Task: inverse folding
């Protein structure tokens, strides 16, 4: 059976660019299986999206959305099947359960804007999915894994790229959190501490980012109650449940900027950024140069290097580097991980913290067996 293809460009409609943009947004929302949208919700969401691409946009009315839905039905009666249903939801504003009239495509995954991939696009997409490798064994992303296998079935099995990764085991939490972030869903998560695995805690959060560091995955989210930013190791999250009746609050800005001034994932919002100078031996110079401790790292030359070498005349050869970072656990750990091949010179507060860490290690090894 020949599969029919739907192409919006094949219709001689003469629609405006603004309406086309609105139809693409509406098409995306009608395909969404993670939210229940009424025509009022659709008008609010599309108004927000239109304002992002056109600051002069004065919003989209519910009546306009109803006309767009009618347009889709009449233009493609053989393809577009939009279903309507009533659901009961709890309204925090009205403090009671209300009936909501929702609309969506009857067929999951349907879209009038889908297009076939070229051979080159298929190959590149397949390689990208294979490279990610984090979707293995996640039930709610089975279709993505099937896509990867379908795209790569003509490729060689010989490994060309090998990445170190820490599998999440049988847990589906990665996929569940990925979906919650992409679909902007509020979550109630249950988690435990490594030091007390039997005590399960719970909190309601707005999930923003899945961040990998040192072969571990972390969820970055904001507390619904306090707005405070929280970090959870995925291996500590026991369960995540979506709360569709809780309005999702987006992060104001670029979430990645929270990590610009730190090493690792331990956030220290009230800490100052330190200008840290450290000496590295000739033997470790190339390693530190090609694998920086932080993105801000650079070599120190000129008067500053001269002043530091005069202050520490016992340091022979080597190279002096600089990083601009806030103090946290990962910073001190990394600075001590090179042993005597890396010596912190300034500032005194970081130099003392490193010295204290080294002394505690020495005391631990001084215990007689």
Result:
């Amino acid at each position: 059976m020949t599969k029919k293809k739907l192409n919006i460009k094949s219709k001689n409609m003469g629609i405006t660019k603004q309406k086309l943009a609105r139809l693409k947004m509406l098409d995306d929302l009608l395909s969404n299986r993670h939210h229940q949208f009424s025509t009022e919700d659709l008008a609010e969401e599309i108004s927000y999206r239109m304002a992002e691409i056109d600051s002069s946009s004065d919003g989209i009315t519910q009546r306009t959305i109803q006309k767009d839905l009618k347009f889709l039905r009449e233009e493609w009666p053989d393809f577009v099947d939009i279903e309507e249903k009533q659901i009961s939801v709890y309204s925090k504003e009205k403090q009671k359960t209300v009936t909501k009239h929702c609309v969506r495509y009857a067929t999951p995954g349907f879209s009038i804007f889908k297009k076939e991939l070229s051979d080159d696009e298929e190959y590149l997409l397949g390689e990208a999915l294979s490279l990610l490798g984090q979707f293995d064994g996640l039930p709610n992303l089975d279709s993505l894994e099937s896509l990867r296998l379908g795209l790569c079935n003509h490729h060689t099995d010989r490994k060309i790229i090998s990445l170190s990764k820490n599998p999440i085991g049988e847990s589906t939490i990665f996929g569940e959190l990925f979906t919650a972030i992409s679909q902007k869903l509020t979550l109630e998560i249950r988690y435990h501490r490594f030091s007390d695995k039997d005590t399960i805690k719970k909190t309601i959060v707005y999930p923003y980012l899945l961040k990998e560091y040192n072969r571990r995955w972390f969820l970055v989210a904001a507390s619904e109650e306090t707005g405070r930013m929280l970090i959870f190791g995925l291996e500590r999250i026991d369960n995540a449940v979506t709360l569709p009746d809780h309005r999702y609050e987006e992060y104001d800005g670029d979430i990645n900027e929270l990590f610009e001034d730190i090493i690792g994932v331990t956030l220290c919002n009230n800490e100052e950024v330190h200008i840290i100078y450290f000496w590295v031996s000739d033997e470790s110079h190339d390693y530190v140069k090609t694998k920086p401790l932080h993105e801000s790292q650079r070599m120190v030359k000129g008067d500053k290097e001269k002043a530091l070498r005069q202050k520490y005349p016992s340091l022979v050869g080597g190279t002096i580097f600089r990083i601009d970072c806030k103090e946290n656990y990962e910073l001190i750990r990394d600075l001590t991980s090179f042993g005597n091949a890396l010596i912190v010179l300034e500032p005194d507060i970081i130099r003392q913290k490193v010295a204290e860490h080294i002394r505690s290690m020495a005391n631990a090894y001084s215990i007689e067996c």
Notes: The chain has a mean pLDDT of 83. The first helix runs from residue 17 to 31. Residues 177-259 form a domain with the SH3 type barrels. fold (CATH 2.30.30).
